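WARN retry 2 of 3 for item q-0093 after timeout on previous attempt; input resubmitted unchanged.
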Amino acid sequence: MDDLRDRILKDILGKNDITLTEDQERALEIFMEFYHSHEDRSAYLLTGSAGTGKTFLINIFTALLRKMGYKVILLAPTGRAAKVITRRTKRLAYTIHHHIYSPKENAFGDVSFELKANKEKSRVVYVVDEASMIGDHSDSSIPNSLLRDLLRYVFYGDEQRKIILVGDPVQLPPVGHNDSPALDPDKLSYLGDLDVFHSHLTEVKRQLVDSGVLENAVLIRDAFLGQNIQELRLDLNRDVQMLERPYEALETYMGYFEPGNQDRAVFITYSNYQATKVNQAIRHQIFGAEEPLVASDLLMVVKNNYAWGDPKRLPFIANGEMGTVRDVYPESYEEKYGLKWMDVEIEFLDARGEIMLVECKIVLDLLENKQPQLDQGVMYSILQQRKQEYMGMSASKAASLLRTDPYVNALQVKYGYAITGHKSQGGQWENVIIGFEPDYGNDLRAYIRWTYTVFTRAEERVFLLNCPFVDL
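OK item q-0093 returned
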């Protein structure tokens, strides 16, 4: 195995003309200990901030494991994160939900998740990227937490399977958590009764030192981890620029905006309210029209939807998924149940990056509403009114109609030009415009963590509007 490791390292490093950092060398040693361990229920945890080479190590680990006859399955918490890791590793990644759950609907159209039985053989390793986003809270559709269910699935029926969790502990934790439970070795060991091997990377790769974005990300990281958070000052350079007026931010976004290229640019805000305002301004610049929706509009799904996907290519349309409007059917517009509705055709990309068209009904009211999604009470009221309209039918027929009812299953979307920091997690864009806001709840450390998270969404350039961490 050591000879094989050396051959693979020589091949990978030679092609990329790079060397491993001391951190990475040590991580590789611990990974080999993990690999050779014969303990049941073992996990390898790889943590580190932006630029420390986590994805590069994933490629090395994957190559080693595949050469040794292991099947490697790549997972990520969201569809966008899965597409990013697919692009970086050139291997298909799946969402955790897609891989471990089967969605189940009851007669009232409510959806819950049922954990699948893991039928994989022993020589399987699961690699889970962006693990900072995996929470330990249950919700209405998952009786256990996503983290607990993931671990149950991995070791179901065979405790010799292995799991590798990769993530950045400085990123925003899941909603409702102070820190990311999937990146805490003690928590992970306790929750899953696991033997955890842990490597933490801090050294930024030499090849990335010249990145102005990464240079500032390190400053933000160190401020968050240190004691002098009041002293954080960013370093403006060719990759990180300050914008003095909102119209400059709008002009900058329009300069980089490229129709059909969702990864070219994004405007990230602190609040849903601010995202709504920025989306309105951007759409006015692009289209100039007053129509609430037009062909080529960029949309972001804000609630999981299980009615309009494809069982194999896109089992459900996930919260945070981006889509482009292909066609709008204005004749379908109607006002009903206190809301405005319209039928549209939206273009999504499946896990392989191939185009998939979805025709569905959407709720127009949500497009310019500061709420993150429709209130549960509103959706329940619509469900009850639709059930009333099916009165007189057999129970089985009514249940069947409810499962595909276009109003009950309407896609909840917002414009996708400007999104919040939480919605941006797991994504990468070439150019990122960040709109800072003065009202951040008086928790400076949490605001710095938010700043780090949105800063590290950029691959090339960051533009700052109203940033409090720059001396003017």
